[in-house]
Amino acid sequence: MAQKKVDVLIIGSGHTGGMAAKILTEKGIACTMLDAGPMLNFEKYRELKPASQLPYRGLGTPGRNPHIYQSSEFNENQWVDEKVIPYSHPSDQIYNWVRVRSVGGRSPFWGRQSFRHSDYEFKSKDHDGFGENWPIQYSDLIPYYDRVEEIFRVTGSTEHLPQYPDGKFIEDKAPWSGAMQRFVDAGKKHGVPVTKPRSSQGRDGLAASLNLLLPDAVQTGKLTMIPNAIVRQITVDKNTGLADGVTFVDRHSHREMTLKARVIIVAAGTLETTKLLMASEICNSSGALGHYLTDQIYGAGIICSVPEARDGKSRGITGGGALIPGFRNLDTKTDGFLRRYAVNVSCSNGPFDPRALPYYGAELDSKLASYNGSSFSTNIMGETLGHYDNHVTLNKQVLDAWGMPTLNIATRYTSNETNMTKDYIDTMAAMATDAGFEILVKNYEFNPPGFSIHEQGTARMSADPKKGVVNQWNQTHDMKNVFITDASVFVSAGWQNPTITMCALAMRASEHLAEEMRKGNV
Amino acid sequence: MKRRDFVKGLAVATATAGTAIGQQKPAPQAQNPAPAANAADQGTMAVNPAAASAPAAQDRVRQQAQFKTPNIPVSQPDVVATTDTRYFTPVRYATLVHLCEVLMPASNDYPSAVKAGAPEFLDFYLGASPAEEQKLYNDGLDRLNADCMKQFKTPFAKADMKQADAVIRPHLKGWMNDHPPRETHVRFVNLAHRDIRTVTLNSTAWAMAADAAGERTPGVGLYWSPIDPGIETWVKHGVAQATPTTKHAHS
Question: Closest Cα of chain A to B71: distance in Å?
């Protein structure tokens, strides 16, 4: 076949690649999408199964997915196997790089918490002097957040908190359960806002690019989707200095192929995107590529029992969840740490977690029966700081199964995260005590970097070409026909799950690109 | 096919084809059917001649593709067989068996960890696990035994319930998420407890007990099969396979 030059090539089919495909094709622009993984087939690859029929009785294949705490024996096949696509980190700087390679990327598997950033994040340097501000502000994204929330069908409640901007929600009007109301009241005493969670409902139980974004692009007849295409390199036209396409490898046969493109959107997921730019030796005139890696701390928390809900009396007392948006370092400064943490609150009327109960045998059975339906727990989502030294480099000595260089990830947390966690545990414990809960576990230990699967930065956004990789439109400073739409462009992490902001940025960047293409500027 | 049959077949096909052209009639089926003439079937012919060469063969392939798997109920091997043990030393294994007896005895309708084959399963599982996890178990079992010998001058495997409780209970701690206690022996006791519970609750014996008690099937989850595995290991990629032929090689 004669080779043709495609209008827009999108690398990656997750939330931001999907959003770019939807927006551009709906404007009549033909897009070709490459994904490194296979097409998913839910009917073929998934089935309900009891753990007694799994080879390892639910313990998981020994030694498999050592860096993926989210992996279980039920889902261990959905993650990227690090033996197939290795990565490395210094021995004292553990990093959990959690990856998925299949069409839709990680979008079928995300936690669906859906928050807007505020100017406390976009203008974070103005508040505390650390890092850089984003070259955009909250008002720039409002119209896009509105549309993204409608697509994802976000539930939530209107709170009128400046650090927690309201949106186009399916309003959550459910009353608090008794225990949750007590915790809300305890929060008021401590100056801590306890709000309803905000979550994407999606459609039919899924809130992925696969069902919310890509079908709209397919409907236009303008999308060509090619799975199993592992991009090796973005190629450059020596005459113009612009990107002119990619070379990629077929996942099954390892056949190498070339594709020419007028515009390239890189949406491979933060670190995959940066790895590809590094392997292509492009877009790093700033020296910022690969640096300022950040994410959020998870894993620290408390587990409690609500005494009145025990022994079969949980009805009306327990149930529901809450979100505590960042409340520190807003108008005052907290000793010991910069930025904010949010808290996921869960109040369950289901089975009690036996790990929280230091008993065994018949005594444990008795406790589990009594405590059933009385569970209350909190988990942290804390912003970490994107230091310059938190960085990735290309490792050409260790290659993956397709002969590609791998990534070395060197990042570490500091006392900022430790102090933040201590403040969080102590505050939650005080609130739980005031609410009358029995505290069973207080865990000050948070997970290693990467665990939250919210890696951000390494190709950050800046109006200054000397400080960032992309401009305020997600367009690379070095090549006007290369755009990056995933969270690698984030300047700071915030406490928020990044997906809704990623999608809003991708929507905005895609509309800007369409207009620039119409004008002939790209 | 013997050579004379092959030649005979060719001769029949050739003669038939010639006659058919002359008479303008469909040719009768040859012993060796004529290759498919259209482009689509020629593609299949190139891959698998036996499947592509005749309409009947193509029909067979289509029929096979539509065939639905017969419903033949299958059982787990644990229904009829036991797991061989071969990893832990006899002393450690005896300690593990007793730990299972102590931590998870039988309850009203459900089997004990020992009845559910937990010790054998953990012997198998730890034998296949990374060295770090093996060390945690080996050291932990040794420590349990040593503590029991020190306090009661009896091996843990022969400790009564009160003695066993005395060496286990001080190390039980509540924990959450992915953060078992840090101190090594406390970590072992709590992780071993979790593992013993997990492999007991997810055993065939437990599932059968639930079934017998009229309870719903325990531990059901959404299992993902391997997704279109793309790794092949028998072809070397990425470098030229053939050494370029030089002029000297021909001379």
Answer: 16
pLDDT of residue B42: 72
The percent of residues in chain B predicted with pLDDT above 90, rounded, is: 62
Cβ partners under 8 Å of residue A15, min gap 6:
A105, A107, A110, A208, A209, A213, A499, A502, A503, A506
Tell me the per-residue pLDDT of B121-157, one tens digit each, with 9 for 90 and over: 999 999 999 999 999 999 999 999 999 999 999 999 9
Q: Return the CATH fold of A5-46+79-519.
A: FAD/NAD(P)-binding domain (3.50.50)
- Give the integer Cα–Cα distance in Å for A208 and A108: 5
pLDDT at B8 over 50: no
For the cut 50, the answer to whether the pLDDT of residue B23 exceeds it is no
What is the structure's pLDDT at A2?
A: 52
Cβ pairs A/B, distance under 8 A: 154
Q: Is the pLDDT of residue B29 over 70?
A: no
Would you call B46 helix, strand, or coil by DSSP? helix
| Other C-beta atoms lying within 10 Å of the C-beta of residue B96 | 27
Handedness of CA A499, A504, A510, A516 (dihedral sign): negative
With vertex at residue A294, the alpha carbon angle to CA A117 and CA A18, rounded to the nearest 5 degrees, is: 60
Question: Do B222 and A62 make contact, defined as CB atoms within 8 angstroms?
Answer: no
Query: Hey, which residues 263-322 in chain A have their CB within 8 Å of chain B?
Result: 299, 301, 303
Q: List CB contacts (< 8 A) between B195 and chain A.
A: 59
Asked if A362's CB is within 8 angstroms of B177's CB, the reply is: no
Q: Does B6 score more than 70 pLDDT?
A: no
- With b for 16 or more beta-carbon neighbours within 10 A and e for fewer, the B45-63 pattern comes to eeeeeeebbbeebbeeeee
Identify all chain A residues contacting B181, using CB atoms and an 8 Å cutoff: none
Domain ranges of chain A: 5-46+79-519
CA-derived radius of gyration, chain B? 33
Judge contact between B223 and A74, C-beta under 8 A: yes
pTM over 0.95: no
Closest CA relative to residue A421, chosen from A376, A377, A383: A383
pLDDT band with cut points at 50, 70 and 90 for residue B31 = low
Length of chain A: 522
Task: Tell me which residues of chain A have a pLDDT lower than 50.
Answer: none
Distance CA A416, CA A435 (A): 29
Residue reference for tokens 């005395």:
B166
**pLDDT, tens only, B46-90:** 777 766 667 777 788 888 889 998 999 999 999 999 999 999 999
Residue B226 CB partners (closer than 8 Å, separation 6+): A45, A77
Mean pLDDT, chain B, integer: 82
Question: What is the rounded average pLDDT for all residues in chain A?
Answer: 97
Are the beta carbons of A272 and A290 closer than 8 angstroms?
A: no
Q: Which residues of B touch A72 (CB under 8 A)?
A: 221
- Nearest CA among A187, A61, A70, A27 for reference residue A511: A27
- The answer to whether the Cβ–Cβ distance between B227 and A102 falls below 8 Å is yes
Which is more confident, A60 or B17?
A: A60
- Chain B: residue nearest A230 by CA? B230
Cβ-Cβ contacts under 8 Å, A400 against chain B = none
What number of H helices and E strands is found in chain B? 11, 1
| Token duo for residue B73 | 């109920």
CA distance B80 to B78: 5
Measured CA to CA in angstroms, residue B127 lies from B86, B123, B145, B184 at distances of 8, 6, 20, 20
